[in-house]
Amino acid sequence: MPNIPSAQSPLYRIGAVSKATEIPVSTLRIWQTRYGAFTPAKTEGNQRLFAEHDVSKALLLKQLSGAGHGIGSIARLDLAQLRQLCHADHQAQAPQAMAQPVSLAVSLAVVGLGLANRIESRQFAGVLSQHRIQVTDVMDDLAAALHAPLSDKPQVLLVQVNSLQDTVLASIQALLQRQPFAQTIVLYHFAPDRVVQAMKLAGLTVRRNPISDSELAELLQSILFVDRDRAQAFGHQGSVIAGRKYSDETLRRVAGISTNVLCECPKHVAELIAQLASFEAYSQECLNKNTEDAHLHSYLRAISGSARSLFENALEKIAQHEGIDLRESAQLNAPSQHHSRR
Questions:
Q1: What is the mean pLDDT of residues 101-113?
Q2: Omega into 24 within 30° of 0, i.e. cis?
Q3: Does 89 have pLDDT greater than 60?
Q4: CA gap 120, 141 in Å, rounded
Q5: Which residue among 276, 284, 296, 332 is least packed, with the fewest CB closer than 10 Å?
Q6: Which of 32-41, 171-180, 257-266, 293-302 has the lowest mean pLDDT?
Q7: What does residue 320 show for φ and ψ, rounded to 5 degrees?
Q8: What is the number of other CB atoms lying within 10 angstroms of the CB of residue 245?
């Protein structure tokens, strides 16, 4: 009997793996036969059939061997070990990178092996040439993600599923409870409108497949600070815009505080945040619908998201100074008299 994986596993001939990874067929054969890097299935006609995880491994081996690791010492490592080695290399290079005007680094946890392979390919890196993408964690599906140990707090969660159901939203929310990602992007093929809307209201970025490399790159760029130096000057760590901290209801409550005691700052800042969040969402919708102007809408979303995040930080400082409770479920506290501006 030929050793063929289940029909649910995507299978690739060696030529397809070579094209996807830009590794010569001859090299893949040497890595397999001499170093035991892969154990592909074979058809009755003795054709090699590589699985998705083999594509992942080939990409990682290519990256590590290019960085100076001997193929003989890494060929038999599993995917988790290879990713840890890549991560160690990135950390070792970090001090040198910080001293130079290099591109922004974004760390991703990816649910979906095929999606991870796509992001780690040289083709996608070329599309996203202004930024560095570091995939720190890869999980086959959401069930695995809920139990997988995550490394070093990745900034973005990128999820690919076939269909969106209530159970998908529940799983993502459970994962976010465990790991507070700055942004979450969900790619799907099929979904009821109510689930899509529920995910958007929960602060997730939702996009329907198929999505091209350029569209995915624009989507990632739309959640990045457009000015990292300025963002860090205002207390932001990393390059990813944080998701919304406050709901429209909380902002309305803050804006409605009596101004007999307080100055107008809470009202004005809360209204600004609401307006910026609205424009941020509008820019995202334009990004989804109009691929011709995707770069412009990506930039506009990044601008509005950066400003919204900075004003949320400002609102926290105002709330602390004026004795305002910003918790979503809390009633706003009356400010004490010693904060009077009148």
A1: 72
A2: no
A3: yes
A4: 18
A5: 296
A6: 257-266
A7: -65, -40
A8: 18
Report the residue count for the chain: 342
For position 153, what pLDDT does the model report? 76
Q: Considering the entire predicted model, what is its pTM?
A: 0.69
**How high is the mean pLDDT of the chain?**
78
Q: What are the residue boundaries of the structural domains of the chain, listed by start?
A: 1-77, 103-221, 236-339
User: For the domain bounded by 103-221, which CATH number is listed?
Assistant: 3.40.50.2300
Give pLDDT, residue 149: 83
Phi-psi region at 139: left, alpha or beta (left = phi > 0; alpha = psi -120 to 50): beta
- In terms of average pLDDT, the best of 34-38, 99-103, 116-120, 123-127 is 34-38
Structure tokens belonging to residue 214: 């350029």
Three state DSSP letters for the chain: CCCCCCCCCCEECHHHHHHHHCCCHHHHHHHHHCCCCCCCEECCCCCEEEEHHHHHHHHHHHHHHHCCCCHHHHCCCCHHHHHHHHHHHHHHHHHHHHCCCCCEEEEEEEECHHHHHHHHCHHHHHHCCCEEEEEEEEECCHHHHCCCCCCCCCCEEEEECCECCHHHHHHHHHHHHHCCCCEEEEEECECCHHHHHHHHHCCCEEEECCCCHHHHHHHHHCCECCCHHHHHHCCCCCCECCCCCCCHHHHHHHHCCCCCCCCCHHHHHHHHHHHHHHHHHHHHHHHHHCHHHHHHHHHHHHHHHHHHHHHHHHHHHHHHHHCCCCCCCCCCCCCCHHHCCC
Cα–Cα distances in angstroms (integers) from residue 226 to residues 88, 90, 104, 110, in the given order:
27, 23, 10, 23
> Which range among 13-17, 119-123, 315-319 shows the weakest confidence by mean pLDDT?
119-123
At CB < 8 A and 24+ separation, what contacts does 323-326 make? 324/254, 324/257, 324/266, 326/246, 326/250, 326/254
CATH topology classification for 1-77:
Multidrug-efflux Transporter Regulator; Chain: A; Domain 2 (1.10.1660)
pLDDT digits (tens, 9 = 90+) for 39-57: 888 887 778 889 888 988 9
